[in-house]
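Q: What would this complex look like in 3D?
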Amino acid sequence: MTAYLPPWSEILATALVGTQRRAVPLPDQHDGGHLPGDPAVALLELAAVIGSCRRAAMRPRVLPPQRLPAPPAVAGQRLLPAPPAAVARLAELLAPGSKTRQHGPLRDAAARIELLAEWLARAAGNSMEVPGELVPALLDVGRRNPLIRPLIAPAAGERAAWLAAQRAEWAYHHRAVAGAPAGGPVDHHDRATWELGTIGQRVAYLTALRAADPRAASCLLAAEWDDQTPDDRAALLPALAARLSTGDEPLLERALRDRRPSIRATAGTMLVALPGSGYARRMAGRATACVDARGAGTVLVTPPAGCDEGMRRDGIAVRPPAGVGQRAWLLEEVLARTPLGIWPGPPEHFLRRPVTEGWAVVLHRGLARASIAARDADWAIALVAVLAACVRAGERPDDRLLVEALYDVLPAEEIARIAADTLAGGLADAGAVGIERLLELCPRPWPDAVTEAFLAALEAGVATRRAGAWRVTGLCEMAALRLPTATLDRVAAIALLAASGARPRDPIVAATGRLASTLRYRSRMLEELL
Amino acid sequence: MPEQAAQRWSTDHILALAPDLASRRAAQRLASDEVWVEAGRAEPDSAASGAAVVWGLARGSGSVPYRTAVDLDGPRYRCSCPSRKYPCKHALGLLLAWASEAIPQGRIPGWVAAWRSGQEHQHPEEAEHPHSEEAEHSRPEPARKAGSESPGPAGRQIGHRALAARRSSIATGLDDLDRWLADQIRFGIAGLAGAGYEPWDAAAARLVDAKATAVAGTVRRLASIASDSDRLLTELGLLRLLISAFHAADRLPNDLVATVLTRCGMPTSARDVLAGQSRIRDVWLVVGVRDEQEDTLLVRRVWLRGEASNVPALVLWFAGPGQAFSEDLPLGARIGGELAFYPGAQPLRALIADRDSAGLGRAAPVPAGASIGQALREYADALARDPWLEQWPMVLSAVVPVAPDTPSSGRWFIAERDGTAISMDLAGTDPWRLVGAVAGRPATISGEWSASGIRPMAVWVDGRAVGL
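A: Here is my prediction, written as structure tokens for the whole assembly.
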């Protein structure tokens, strides 16, 4: 070995420009070195020796201590590690590989997210933990799927919070945990947020202020109402919906005259909800003038003769939609804005009373709209029974949307009861009254009564082949993610029944088969988490 | 449900039986409930009904369903479909459905019984299949091997004369490369940085023609580091060193000659490796599994470490397009047995010469790791024996990943508690997976060390081995 080797920088400098243009720095050769005559080859041999030495002599860096991560704080309650099979399943749900991408329930991205949600909820319920290596992927999924966000903290614990603090992309996690609105945590003492914040932050500020001091929030918005852009007014007004009081009435009356229809509608809904507001009294006056519900006999309906200036100012739309009579429309508009409390007796009694020939339909529509706006469950329950019967009988099929909107107002147990009753009438009829919407609103997994009714209806539909194939397909897809997994055997039997003697390519065979496959997948998934 | 006599196979295991990728895909579509009618399974019982069997009728596009049956002892497949693939997609789909517990227990129908009683009279090659137990013993590596480095049957048949011819052909190729290298240095390597893949691919193609396949691969890979002139110069120097070592083979020790010849593309047959002296018996722990695409070939590197000897070893598997690896040596597995190492100055690549039949299970103990300083010294020693070493396995104990101080740029590190650190080579892996697993608490991490840094392969946390 030579005693002296030229510095690497010299060798590199020559190599970059070429030995034609720059001399090769030759080593000191006491030992009668035998470097080749060609300077290019000599340079390469030097590079091999010195380059290898540099590689072998590689020293570690020393990082300042503050660069090293501090481990997350250990939480009070320890979660158990999830079993290996469950971990493998979660990995598959988070990032389906080529093996699963083309088949089974994971083929559908939306279904995959629902399965993931079910995994997380079951794991948290059994005090099991998402393994650390999968938490980053879980946080990535949560970024795109708000449905997943609230489920992360219970199943991933302090590790999720610790990781989320390290990347801006995962910052949503802290908000999801704290329950703060999307604009970030807001301090209602910090007036700068109101003055300078984005519209999201300003809504959050006003909401926080409303919770702390309702009057101050009302005054703040009233003082600056005219300076806001229409978009901002529309965004800010709903923040006052909580803790309404008569002090808010002047501002709401102003909003009722706004140029933008959506702001007028919001203000109207809020004024109806405000007990004793002038608006509510005005509407009640108009309604009782048209609908005489005194006594216990027939409800007498005399529709308004026309739309006066006061009605128009209170937001009544003059032009009826196509196919609706002018006076019927005006009555519906008035009823939709009238507090439901003015009608005598419990809702179901009131609705059972006879109505002036031909006007029951309009009355029910108006009351349905009022109960949807007020989110009044008692009225909604009674109205669903009446309207659904009409829709099912084919009298007024276009009221289906109204019925579906009423479902949104119902409490969970009532939804389950109605869903079960509706399914008992068979799949074909159930479709007419928006069974899909009802089942979507049912708690998961479906309660026993709904499960039983669904399976019975499916069995009957498959056996008689009377239900439409597209309807069965849609319902099976929904049921696959919502039926309790204990129904697997029964569903498999139904799938078998569907397959026996079917024509080739019968879509019902595929639908029931897929239902069984997905249920089997969920059943195994949940068993793994025991 | 009664205790299952025939244990269910994993999906991976079943898919590994597929003859090609198309069959795997098709089989997955056929694995669902809607396909199979009159399907059933029968477990072996005390009566002479033989092994477990699964059968079913597959609804195809035609009016008559195909009859498919799989005898799980073997396994042997039977299907009335016209496919010439063996096993066909229906047989695989049936197995997948069976593995997901979609097939109920039933009575063996007549056609299955008839097939099973008649199968002894079939042609022997139909009964033979790639995963039978007998075949396992004669095959040193579970996956079928292909490609240039493969010591498969083709390699075994190369006679002395052919070897000599190959060697002289390689010599010609290397001389050509030598001139090309000198030209690059003569005109300066600065120009190579922006030249793209073309010059490397052209040089590599000439080497392939000269059968110097291993060098060709090295040259082709240089395209990706051409912009790092510091590293490029070292690599070019090492190529020149390889060429002079090849020509000076008669003056070098045998081990080093073996290293040089292998690096140049001279094949070593598996039979020679198994017949060689370089064997170590130990309990081997799988400390890393890395799959990489090389041209059309999928290469799996399984890194082992001996528990008693602390010797690192590399088992290579190859799979052609659509072929699958057997899941025989998963990360964290612990196997007792003897490895036969390929000859070389720094033995690393090995074959599993003999494996204790009693598996030691997957209860993975944490491998004994080294400090960063120790690991770098070991690497320096290995490099002194084989300067052409590309990846060197490291198992580091009590280390944590360290994120860059600026989120968008900057380097990732693997560091010890006192701040001693080496940089991480991300190369397509997501470092956050590692961060999440470790969560700031020092852990044992294995990785492949190269001139670009350490590329993490696995981490041990709470007694589990987690692949990265």
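A: To summarize the key features: Chain B touches chain A through 81 residues (CB under 8 Å). The CA atoms of residues 193 and 227 of chain B lie 4 Å apart.
Q: Very helpful, thank you.
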